[in-house]
Amino acid sequence: MLTVGGIVGRIGELQTIQGIIQQARHGPAALVLDGEAGIGKTTLWRAAGQWARTIGFVVLTATGAAIEMSMAWAGLADLLAGIDEVVLAGLPLPQRRVLESVSVGRLHTGADQRLVATALRGALDALSRHQPVLVAIDDAHWLDNASTTALGFAIRRLTGPIGVLATFRSGTPDPRDDSWVAPRDPKVLTRLTLNPMSPGDLRALIADRDGSTPPPPVLQRLHTLSGGNPSYALELSLAWNQQRGSSAESVVLPPRLAAGMLGRIGELDSETTEAIVTAAAAVEPTVELIAAATGRSSAELVDLLQPLESRGVLVFEGNQIRFIHPLMAAAVVDAADPGSRRRAHSRLAGVVDHPEFRARHLALSAPHGDSNTWAALDRAAEGAAERGAFSEAADLLAIAIRTGGDTPLRRLRAADYNFRTGALSEAEVLVAPIVDSLPAGSARASGLLLLGGVRGQRDGWASAGELLQRASIEAADDSVTGIQALVWLALATGLGGDMPSCVALARRAREEADHTGIAHLRSQALSLWVLVSFMHGLDTDTEALQTALEIEDAGGPAPAHLQPSAVYALICAWTGRLEEARSAMLEVARRCGESGHDADAVWAAEQLTTIEIWLGRYAAARHTADGALGHARQLRAGLPLIRAWTSLSLVAAHQGRVDDTYEAARQAIERATAANLTYLVRIPVMSQAFVEVSAGEYAAALSTLRPLLDTFDPAHDAEIATGRYLPDAVEALVALGRLEEAEPLVAALESNGSRLDRPWMLAAGARCRALLAAAEGDLERATRHAEQAMDHHDRLPMPFERARTQLVLGQLQRRRRRLSAAYDTLRQAADVLEGLGSSLWAARAHRELGRLSSRSAGGTLTDSERQTAEKAAVGLSNKQIATELYLSPKTVEMHLSTAYRKLGIRSRAQLAHRLRQLDTEEPGDEPTPSSAP
Hints:
Blueprint lengths: L2 E2 L2 E2 L2 H13 L5 E7 L5 H14 L3 E6 L10 H7 L4 H5 L3 H11 L9 H16 L4 E6 L6 H12 L5 E8 L19 E5 L5 H12 L5 H11 L3 H14 L11 H8 L7 H12 L5 H8 L3 H13 L3 E4 L2 E4 L2 H10 L2 H12 L5 H10 L6 H16 L3 H13 L5 H14 L2 H8 L10 H18 L5 H10 L4 H17 L3 H18 L2 H17 L6 H9 L13 H11 L3 H18 L2 H18 L2 H18 L2 H18 L2 H17 L7 H13 L3 H13 L9 H4 L2 H10 L3 H18 L2 H17 L3 H15 L5 H17 L3 H18 L2 H22 L2 H11 L4 H8 L3 H15 L7 H10 L13
Parallel strand pairs: 3-6, 3-7, 4-5, 5-6
Antiparallel strand pairs: 1-2, 8-9
Helix pairs in contact: 1-2, 5-6, 6-7, 8-10, 9-10, 9-19, 11-15, 12-13, 12-15, 12-16, 13-14, 16-17, 17-18, 18-19, 19-20, 20-21, 20-22, 21-22, 22-23, 22-24, 23-24, 24-25, 24-26, 25-26, 26-27, 26-28, 28-29, 29-30, 30-31, 30-32, 31-32, 32-33, 32-34, 33-34, 34-35, 35-37, 37-38, 37-39, 38-39, 39-40, ...
Keywords: ATP-binding, Coiled coil, Nucleotide-binding
GO molecular function: adenylate cyclase activity; ATP binding; DNA binding
InterPro entries: AAA_16 (IPR041664), P-loop_NTPase (IPR027417), Sig_transdc_resp-reg_C-effctor (IPR016032), TPR-like_helical_dom_sf (IPR011990), Tscrpt_reg_LuxR_C (IPR000792), WH-like_DNA-bd_sf (IPR036388)
């Protein structure tokens, strides 16, 4: 879930508000932000004001209050408090005095309102001459009439860079007029209504406040009761946390909310109470349903409930009975005594047709369940699961277990449904105590598989290996469970570091799944095969991937990395189709967030971080990685934390933040090592080595990479997914003169790149070959390889990789005295690296430009160019230089432009420094750091 500045789920709305504020830089612009109480208007209003200040606006604020509506000028006084006295002092005396009276609360209600309004307009105009202004009013519906009159007068006459932001409450019986906010030109007024938040947004909001989230059934109940209102949802969540119920039905209204809702109802007779409690207890109340449940005709029921419609409790929409807010229905049910509630559910159970609704009413109609009720709940859960409503299914079985129907097999099914919704802790609590007591064979295999799946997704698949092995043995007569165990066992084996065995298990799982013809099994097995065979250097099994995509079940139980669409995104990324990969992985991340699969959401964030880095979007990558760490900390689980710290190490390394790279890599490596997740150690190790190469610490980089180099398999480890460290290892080896050790690494990139037609391997291989050739003294051949690498980069949208190759090419061009070409190449590299925010590599590019200048500038600056540059360096204008040197201004401009290019600078401010550098260098002096080819 996206967050900006602590705001969850309202990114689009915030961007709209920011756009209006930016528009106000160029002239009047106004925004009316409305929505029901608690929907988040004040949060956005506050964030907008803070943001406006950061971009140079003066922000004048006021907040309406019901108690101050009768206090004339109260709102205007708040706004005036933000205007500097110097501005007010510049107003005509009558205007200044009247505003001073408003500010101190001494202006009586019968004062000249036009004078006040004119003075306000004058103050705003004066203020906006110096910097843009935002007038920001929260709860504007409670602003006093005198203030709104003056503001309306001023707003209609605005001409300068002034924005207006006002929030209004909607859904009240007597909404306030907001026309006073409108400028004279209606085109510059925008109206924005805040809609209810989605379940995913509410989930992120609750997690942000509480550090954890309720299970999916409870979350769905919170969303239903709150109507998507974040304020209500947070209050309901807090109440649920305090009493910690076991099911969605345990969510009850806290006293404050209940009292607010029940206040509208008033005293009711027994017949009306019976009817409204029955309607409130129904899932989808209609006139006919409630009439049948209460033994009345439809007309009698309508007559009975109509007074409640006039009180704002409910409305009739056709034959539907709709409470004015879901909280109203919940308050009615909670306020009824237990006997009345049970009788209402009993009556409804006798008339509803929907099996899930009937089962729920049956369960709630008695303090304890019976075999008929539990059977009904079982059937209802199966029906919910068949339509993909696993959260609903889990909650139905939770009711059965809670009301006395606690059996091992029912627990197993409930755990399975929770697992499918991503509620891993809830699934583990259900299955762990009973797994060994399940009947031997298929049932126990299912329990072991489920427990292994929970721990694998939460803590890492290597930690689940023993459970999955046992599941595979127990499932001798259950091919479905056996194949699922085989798929997950392959993952556990691969993450444990044994890729050949992982590939063999994946091949076997694919073959066995194909024989079953079961779509979700085949989809997972094919996805696993495509994933691990690619990582092992066996190319993309396009046919298998296409088949997996065709039979994918996006709502199925597979972890994200075994979903075909996620594997497709990875293959796109690893083969250089990065924009396509980004779009596909964003969709995977969205799906994970909405379905509540927390561990999968962190996995998707890790992949997105890598893709954003490869695309050169370092800020986006850091935002994604930071969000992943926050999410992982909420989960308090090992595997998500490893992935999040890995992402952060990758971002820090590419941005050149050395200490941050070491710390993030350490966190990831220590956790992965402790969990025996050998394979997950690789990426943070690569991040650490990359930042060491970036800093020119080549011996340290090789020491860091030693475990990877010792196990390197040229035939299987050259893909970017597994071998992205190879160019770093080659550069370090070449810099240290260990050319023979570098040769097989370069050859692996070249041969596999040609065999598989991988742009990254081809580009990196050619660049590395250029480094080797240069170290051997063959600059012509080195240049040829570097130019070939540039050709391969045309197929690879990875700006850092291209700039890194340009850096090598520019160095070679300099050494071959192709100085103009070297300058252009190095300048392009420096510009890209600066733009990316890759500080260490940008500094390296600038050092190369400096070496180019120090080697060439003293000899290539003509006397006229040198004289012109020296005059400019001491601050003379072009016209003054022209006069002193008897040149035309155009010639001066030409000499300076040429000098800038030769000196490797861009502005007059850099001239003095570069000229001093030239004066302190010996002719031809050329420092040679170990990074130079």
